[in-house]
Queue: 2 jobs
Job 1
Amino acid sequence: AAPPATQAQVESLESFIGAFSAALEAGDVEFVWERLHPEVIAVSDEATCRAWVEAEVMGLSGYTFIEETAGPVTVQGIADVYVATVGFDFGGQRFEDQLGQFALLAGEWRWLGQCR
């Protein structure tokens, strides 16, 4: 008989942010794109979101987790959203104490943003 299935361990938010940061540093646009919450794309359109990810989001560096500040909450109809304080570099400037939003979707962390 096969062993019983075990529940896969969900990565911590801090661990996901580390992977997100590593993907930004490596220029791994596919990882960053695949982990964008589908509801973010649904309120805009895929072409706009992909252009935003490639032109702006991939320009972030030094993306760091500082602390989890809230969650789970529902934001704009998206359940299981967690808010974390993060820091990052963009356009030659360091931004600290920024609020990032992340949601669990089918046991996998996704990030939230506003395509523009």
Job 2
Amino acid sequence: MLKKILIGVATLLLLCMGAIAIFASYLNWSTPENLTKTTYAQLPYLADKPAVKGKVLAIVTSTPSMQVPTKDGFKTKEAGFELTELARAYAVFIANGYDVDVASPLGGAATYVQDEDDMGAYDYAFLNDSQAMNKVRNTLKISNVSVEDYAALYLVGGKGTMFDFRNNTSLQRLISESWSKGAVVSAVCHGPAALLGVELADGSQLLAGKQITGFSNAEELLLIPKAEQVFGSLLEDELRNAGAKVVVGPDYLEQIAIDGRLISGQNPWSVWALADAVVAALGETPAPRELTGEELAVNVMGIYQRQGLEQAVSALQALSADEKTSLARNLIAIHIFVSAKKGQWSEALDLFELLRVASRLADVG
């Protein structure tokens, strides 16, 4: 009996090891040479900057850390703003002729979160640009900002915003006055927290009856199960309670909401589309840009969520040879684990098939 059990366990282990090996073979293991040293001069999208047409004010949090409950009490975790959410929108605005200033509730140096798994060429180019980083190290204080200087506001996300964007009277005033003068107001991820309680000149609430999106309850609770205890409440719930028409898309995929001059994105993977929408709302045609590997993966998974596996596979097959190679297969792998963690095994298996096909097409070219 013991021999049979040992043989069974050994067989199971071998099968698991084989499955892991197959899974690993589907991933992107190579990193572009000198990726971390990328500069704006190396990015064709930013090679020919147009004449300056106006300015955008990006607003980031001044909260560097937060307390997260554990079984033994609390531990300190980084908060700050999401670097990718600023860096990518910054690139879009600059490429379309809009200078960008950076402000925060307290002014001065702002703390950012840099997730290496999400970093791409545009993010490293931002880090390597002295002018861009100087703006992060010396943010303007929002109470000192003149709304007349800016065609649009961009409220950058990051968990810190849940502590100093909500109920911030200086920020509420800035948003209200900007809206009254006809500026575009945009926000991504946790950034919409700043819109809560914003009262317009006529006494109405900015969010009342407006379409809006932001980091969803599902996305929040998957990452921080005790998020309500950390933040006091969930952003999606607060937006609904404020009378907004909340738009919720699939977890961790692109989703934007456009309601006139109010433009919002659900999460970091919505930044590119949101920034282009801001440019369009300013009356410009967004400059063409080659999609990043991450965007390609997000688009394909979005097609899967809306239309199913067959259409997603067709979308993969329709990509150019370069796109098939650059598509961020690791992001699909992450979504497999997300689906499994949620107990959505059928979806996890579909995404595994999508990953397999993407890997095969990349090898063929």
